[in-house]
Amino acid sequence: KKYIYDFSEGSADMRTLLGGKGANLAQMWKIGLPVPPGFIITTEACHKYWEEKDFISSIWSDVEAAVARVEELAGKKFGSSQNPLLVSVRSGAPVSMPGMMDTILNLGLNDDTVAALAKSAGDERFAYDSYRRFIQMFSDVVLEVDLDKFEERLAQARENAGVKEDYKIPAEELKKLVVDYKKIVEEAGHTFPSDPWVQLRLAIDAVFRSWNTPRAITYRKINNIPAEYGTAVNIVTMVFGNLGDDCGTGVCFTRSPSNGENKLFGEYLINAQGEDVVAGIRTPVPIASLEAAMPEVYKEFHRIAKLLETHYRDAQDIEFTVERGKLYILQTRNGKRTASAAVRIAMDMLHEGLIDAETAVSRVAPEQVEQLLHPQIDPKAKRNVIVKGLPASPGAAVGRVVFDADEAAERGGKGEAVILVRPETTPDDIHGLFAAQGVLTSHGGMTSHAAVVARGLGKPCVSGAESVKIDLAGGTFTVGGVTVKKDDFLTLDGTNGDVILGKMELIEPQFDENFRELLEDADKISNLQVWANADTPEDARRARSFGAKGIGLCRTEHMFMAAERLPVMQEMVVSTTTEERVAQLKKLEVMQEEDFLGIFEAMEGLPVTVRLLDPPLHEFLPKIPELTKALEGLAPESAEAKKINATIARARELHEQNPMLGFRGCRLGMIFPEIYEMQARAIFNAACKLTKKGVRVIPDIMIPLVGTQEEMKRMRKLVDEIGAAVIKENGVALEYMVGTMIELPRAAMVADQLAEYAQFFSFGTNDLTQTTFGYSRDDAEGKFLGQYVEMGVFEENPFARLDRDGVGALMEIAVGKGRSVRPEIQLGICGEHGGNPSSIAFCNKLGLNYVSCSPFRVPVARLSAALAAL
Ligand code: ADP
Ligand code: MG
Ligand code: MG
């Protein structure tokens, strides 16, 4: 079995076997770039190393043969005291993986070879500088000796020589340093190996060993990198950037990694080796000044940079070294970049004809795109994080702490930046949420009131920061020994859940021409449309401007939560007779109609799916303790007290053990048909009025939580009867559909029966996940779901990424059964999964017509839908 490849034997497509670094070195060798000779020990060898005892011995003769071939090419000899070959030993996995072994430079040096190196270079200082670096790196990485001792001794050497920089330490001082370095190694219980072959073997061993260090394992876990990959070992002839002023080393991006500008972007150091550039000891100079310093080298580098970009058809991140005026390339890889750089580079390369539209679209990661839509904390700034909560709604918010919703509404309304901090929020706090920059709550999960409302509003929210202790009366909160007072500045990062003390600088979101064009290209590739969940005209407009092709979920309950409407709604809920209820519903109908007028108008020409009332009615009532408190001091016979008592009685009646599985969804419409009739009338009236004005309205009316054919049949009839009457009254032509959400396992299983009456299905995967697993989301996320993910029960929270095996299987059944009865049935998803890339890929596979997600996720979903289709 072949475990060793010379650079001349590999290529870029052998990444899995040779690792990313090795495959690219081989590729560059192949196309004739100045790469120092070397060879690669494969990732398969890494597996063998972990399987077989003393595996390295079994390939040792091959290593020797490979070194011999390198000696030939380099014209030097490994371990020679005349003309020694030195090498670097570098790890390299198939994907870039910090946490692996650090590179060792100058391997092969000992007391003999160093003298030879000094002689051949004509520079003693250089040789001993290389030697001391080697001992330091090798001891650190292979022998695991504490680095501090070396750094102390090095500082001593600088002091002795009276210089500030390492590269000014004279040869004599370096010689003493080397002697002392070896003593440090001995004190740590090792002997520094002087035989270059022993050095090489130990270094190779250390690279393989580093694949399973705790930090490497942790990194793999966080980034979903399979342990099967393994790492390769690259052994590369040393070239020296520290041989004088005609030498240097640097790194360079072929385009700006921060904004994508098509211009070399990099840094270098004269007379330096390897990691000096990133180590921060000396400040590197911008690549542009290389043009003046070494014009020939710069010209050559520029040529190679462009060549590599054309070759790989992507922006490159290149490492180079100049030895006595000769340029060497030591690494190239696709450069990491910010979201805005990714977009610009992709579109520029498309326009340059370097890549096609499919490739351009695939160059931007959907998750990255979210960065472009919310203000962001300056990534370069240091964060003083006092606590981490749940990342409930993305984006960054800065403002002064306020504990009261009314105060937030007042000060926010005047244009002041405030952050609302609450134990949790209720519908009563909406105005405060609306006026605040962001919200922090100590209780509640990803679907708590604060989280849902904040996401809808596009406001950053950190929820469930349980260790935050709020003293509402005192106007402070404490967490981990820090006390934050009202009016103190606070910064929230809703994208990762950071709560940061103080006022951070924010960077504005960008939705520029390039991004727009990229998303249009994405739409052309996709099979799925992207719709949005929007409850207000403002949301609808935002969704449309982000490219939504319809509204997949317009929740009507939020419309009743606004301050002036809630009392009417409460009156309706408290009503005990149908007449009373109808009287209140009449008032609500006027308001509902207005809501629909606004949304339908904003979505002119595009479908709007309106879901009839879904939550249990008691959610609209104040909590019983609050009501009891309001009774205090009232005369028991007063009208007000009577009213409160009636509300308490009704709240008790409506109380449910398990509201999620209780009297909600179409069950409300079945028992109180007047509620759904009112909503249907409001929808049809609004639609007819606009139709008369020449606005094209496409209403889809959606019945929630249907589980039986009888429910679907009756609700369809209810809507159709109202629809027929209103349309006739208005004398217009209006087309509409009536459909259902599929959010109960039974609904999926009897989807064929439902499809006889339902003209569309929309998968409500939030509830479908709850009911399939038998989890109440709010309880599960707070109590055990996090641990389940840590324990490996789930790879990811099934409320974030759709569970294909269970929930997905039900969806597949429903799709099949639905189409068997109604082949043209419209299929979509409106759960939060509709904005999750992996879940979108699954919906694409099922052949759904659209996914619907929150307006701010629309661009993410458009990209994901395209990627799913590629
Ligand atoms: P990393 O993956 O951390 O970048 P590398 O193996 O690429 O580690 O190397 C670290 C530094 O050493 C880089 O600056 C690289 O250019 C330099 N380097 C590696 N091998 C050689 C070599 N053979 N000659 C000169 N410099 C080298
Ligand atoms: Mg590197
Ligand atoms: Mg639901």
TrEMBL record:
UniProt-listed Enzyme Commission number(s): 2.7.9.1
Reactions accelerated catalytically:
pyruvate + phosphate + ATP = phosphoenolpyruvate + AMP + diphosphate + H(+)
Per its record, what are the GO molecular function terms? ATP binding; kinase activity; metal ion binding; pyruvate, phosphate dikinase activity
TM segment ranges: none
Q: Keywords for this entry?
A: ATP-binding, Kinase, Magnesium, Metal-binding, Nucleotide-binding, Pyruvate, Transferase
Chain ranges of the Pyruvate phosphate dikinase AMP/ATP-binding domain: 17-55, 60-284, 299-352
Q: Which residues constitute the catalytic centre? A: H449, C830
InterPro entries the record matches: ATP_grasp_subdomain_1, PEP-util_enz_mobile_dom, PEP_util_AS, PEP_util_C, PEP_util_CS, Phosphohistidine_dom_sf, PPDK_AMP/ATP-bd, Pyruvate_phosphate_dikinase
**Record's keyword annotation contains ATP-binding:** yes
> Per UniProt, where does substrate bind?
R555, R611, E743, G764, T765, N766, D767
Where does the PEP-utilising enzyme mobile domain start and stop, copy by copy? Answer: 416-497
Q: Where is the PEP-utilising enzyme C-terminal domain?
A: 515-866
What enzyme category does the UniProt record give?
A: transferase
Pfam families in the cross-refs:
PEP-utilizers, PEP-utilizers_C, PPDK_N
The yes or no answer to whether the keyword Transmembrane helix is present is no
Cofactor(s) the record lists: Mg(2+)
Q: Could you say which residues bind Mg(2+) here?
A: E743, D767
Family label = Belongs to the PEP-utilizing enzyme family.
Protein name as catalogued = Pyruvate, phosphate dikinase
**Record organism:** Cloacibacillus porcorum
